[in-house]
Fold this sequence. Notes:
With 71 residues, this protein is mostly helical.
Amino acid sequence: MQDAWMIRKAEEIQGYADHNEMKNFFKAIKAIYDPRKKGTAPLLSSDGTTLLTEKSQILKRWAEHFRRFLN
């Protein structure tokens, strides 16, 4: 799942580079590798298609995960 997300991001960034969209290129790179950001790491949704970034969404996803595997 993580690999699929990384592949999609790499293709997106490559598209920006191919079309000389440098503003979007650097913005996408910074979103992935910005070391100054602290806080909650993104998490994939249960179906693996959506990246959850809001803390409330991530907490709900973790609760769902543990309910599923511990019950």
